[in-house]
Amino acid sequence: MQLNIILRSTVFQRVLASCAVFVVLTLAIIWTVGPWQISQIKQAEIATLQEFLRNGDDLFDDGGPDAVIDAVRWSEEQDVWFDGDIFVMLEEEDTLFAFRDPEGNILAGFNGLWASDALGETTLDHPEIDDPIISQGIWFNTGHSVIVGRFVPERIANIQTFMRTASVALIVIVLPLALLTGFFLSRGVFRRLETLSKTAETVAQGQLDARAPLTGTGDEFDRLGAGINQMLNQVEKLTRNVEAVSIGVAHDLKTPLANIGGRLELIRRDITDPSAVHEHLDVAESRLRGLLRIFDALLRMGEIESGHRRAAFQPVDLSTLCTEMAESFTPLFEDADKALRVVIAPNVTVHGDRELLAQLITNILENALEHARDAAQVHLVLSQPGGQTHLEIGDDGPGIAPGATERIFERFFRADASRATPGNGLGLSLVKAISDLHQAEITLLEGRPGAVFAITFPKA
Fold this sequence. Notes:
This protein has helices at about 1-10, 10-70, 85-90, 155-205, 220-270, 275-305, 320-335, 355-370, 425-435, and strands spanning about 80, 95-100, 105-110, 120, 135-140, 145-150, 315, 340-345, 350, 375-385, 390-395, 440-445, 450-455. The protein is of the alpha+beta class. The longest helix is centred in the first third of the chain and has 63 residues, at about 10-70. It is elongated and about 150 Å long.
């Protein structure tokens, strides 16, 4: 079954198809370039042969048969035609000549060379030489003839041998090798994919702690597995967050809804007492407004996390915005017996949404206003160290419990597990969402008294 799956796999089919295309293209190149090269070599040989024929024609016109004989005979010692060892002559000559009288008798040159007036391939009339020779003859008006022959170059035979050998090798060696390569490659890929598939199946069955195994080679499957593991880590984190959010939503909605229901019962009981009915309605409306604030915060957070607000980003004078926020919050801190210290660098501008940045500062200041101790010192500092915008807001109060620092930006998380203090646990979650939208990094500074938040905006 596994063999069938491997043979039908995309990797195997693509490797096989790629090799088949490679073989076909290579064969096409070999059988296109090879004959073209052979043709070029033959054309050069034919041009040389015909040049000899033209020279022979000129010699006969100028000096008659004697001039041709002097040109054709192999050596000064040979008076007329050569009938000795042709191999001796071929050591020094690559072209053979034959000059014949009208009756076809040899006058000079090699007696075994015959040809017609048409260009063609033939063989020598020699018992030991069967190599093909390109030959052509020319006949004069006296009946005499000159025949010129040139052996087909060994390069042509080499090219033809290479073409045949390469074709056989491609079909007999490369294709089977492609089959083996495709099989083993597909099997390796199949095994790696099978481990990833089993991990996905395990997670689908509810085991969110399952992770894809990594080989440590850093190949594409390891990178894919690392990406899947990172995704699973995030899914597990989000799942835990959803569980916490569900509990938080249930708790934060149950109490005000129960209060509203109780007030409705009281209204029914005190329906004859207008003043009591008004009191019950006021309390019910207050609880309803609290519920609406929760839903508004959730809707606003969803809008921010969707990223749609980023399209309307523009330069924001953060120095002016911080100054305005400090001026509006100073009376509130004074009424709560707390001090707000402000240090704002001038002309600090960031690219963002002014309304959302105001919401970010408001939520952190309200958090300090509500949770910092009496007579606490709260600070708002805007600076630009090294050209990078840095906003720090914090207090010197009791701070946040160590076990809760890692979860303070989660929705509905509240360090007060009993939820005895007012709030819905969405303020810092909204702050984190706004920071992420502006690609700013927000951290809770460690080793500082109280709760101190630092927001670092990216360089312009």
